[in-house]
Amino acid sequence: MTTPRGPLLVAVSGPEGAVTSSLAGRLTTLLRARGHTVVPVHGGGCFLCRRFPVPSAAGEAAGDVGARRATDRGRRGAWPRRAHAFLDAGELAARVAAAGLLARARGGEAVVLTDRGPLDGLVTFDPPAGSAAASVFRRIADRYGSTLLVESGPGARRGRADAAGPRAVSATRYRSWSRRLPRITRLDGARPPSLVAADALERIHDTVRERERSRAVREEPGGTGRRRHVVVSIYDDAENPAYRGGGAVVIGKVARRLAEDFRVTVVTAGRSGGSEVRDGIRYVRLPVCRAGPRAGQLLFLTLLPFVAGRIRHDLWLESFTPPFSTSFLPLTTGAPVVGIDQGRGAEALWRRYHIPFFLVERLGLRCYRHLVVMNAADGAAVGRLSPRAEVQVISNGVEQRLLDETTLGAGRFILFLGRIDTWVKGLDLLLDAYERAAPPMDLVLAGSGTPAEERRLAALVASRAPGPRPRIHWVGYAGEERKRQLLRDSAFLVMPSRHETFGLVALEGMTYGKPVLHFDLPALRWMRDGGDVAVPPFDTVAFGERMTALATDPALRRRLGRRAGHAARHYTWDEMTGRYLRLAHRILDTPASARRPRRKRGASWLTTR
Question: So what's the architecture of 405-568 in CATH?
Answer without folding.
Answer: 3-Layer(aba) Sandwich (3.40)
